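Deliverable D4.2, example record:
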Amino acid sequence: MAEMHTGVGRQRGALPWPQPRRIATLSVHTSPLHQPGTGDAGGMNVYILEVARRLAEADVEVEIFTRATSGDLPPVVEMAPGVHVRHVMAGPLEGLTKEELPGQMCAFTAGVLRAEAARPPGHYDLIHSHYWLSGQVGWLAKERWGVPLVHTAHTLAKVKNAQLAAGDRPEPKARVIGEEQVVAEADRLVANTRVEARDLVGLYDADPARVTVVEPGVDLDRFRPAPGDRDEAVLAERRRLGLPTNGYVVAFVGRIQPLKAPDVLIRAVAALREREPALADELTVVICGGPSGSGLDRPTALIELAGSLGVGDRVRFLPPQTGEDLPALYRAADLVAVPSYNESFGLVALEAQACGTPVLAAAVGGLVTAVRDGVSGVLIDGHDPADWARTMARLLPDRLRRANLGRGAQGHARNFSWHRTATGLLAVYGEAIAEHRARLTGRLAADSALTCSW
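Output generated by the structure prediction step:
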């Protein structure tokens, strides 16, 4: 499988491969305009938004197709210069679960095809689909438009089903089949990490030559350590967010669902209280996010869990944070916990580290890439709350160790940027376009030879 390409110039004509003029980005089930941390909005939203902006800066127009879920938004929204979000009417103007969306794929596909039909022929040079539902749409559109399809899965059903949280629902067989079809039909598959690339090849029989690793990035201008004295900055950020100014803070940021495993962190607090009650009484755990997926079945489950374990006084719940409040939360924390059962990458871990905050993460999926064990944070094998409690008991009182990890976290995060991600994607796009054109040329030559033979 191919590695990520680097060193791409920003100007058209400076590239060793053809650069697309316009691409159609497909994101059926969630819009980059939605607030991450609620519903189905998460790291994929951030990815699409940040990549689109960087591509536009590189003189590539991006049109993002997503399902309309509100009548308050116009059909087309300019998100940034060169980036437009097109809301496609497909089903009711309300949120539908991902399980309900396959029934709207015909309507969504029709909307995408109609939008292209209103343009001059050859308007889009390439399609980039995100998540398997979008891949299904992209599969048909690429055949109709005669352009290559690049696909990013973000999550894979076979991987999720092999690492299910207790009580979580397995992904349906229809999704598994749909993913297999998209993997077979896409011209290029973009994996976030080598782990995901191996999963595509090993579990989905993807052609290694069509799989390229392009790591996601982080906005290093937005997510950064506070200037000046760190202790003063931590106090200021905690006051800003209404958090205790004394003691320790461990933060969880993400959608509230079993896959993300925030319950592991709450259970770890209970285990810590049994192990070291004095330390537990100095700890505040912040759960920042909104219910999502199967977490919508019991939106108050975490509150009830904290109460039943007798640690309700140690847990604070915050809604998803916007603007500068999110980096403020990362900076206010002594540690950020990412206990997910699976992550294709783990943008939260990268954002926290860019702010200079060490991360405790489960050693799964893309988190083994996003977190450098022992340098920018600590990777924990498994989800046993006792293991998480022991790790917190070891790190929280060790100020020097946390400071070293914080410096390592900031250094590790600097290896990632959205410009670097867009650079890698431009290389993938260019190779896909070049191969597509070569195939067309070969077919034309073969047809011409056949005609002449008659």
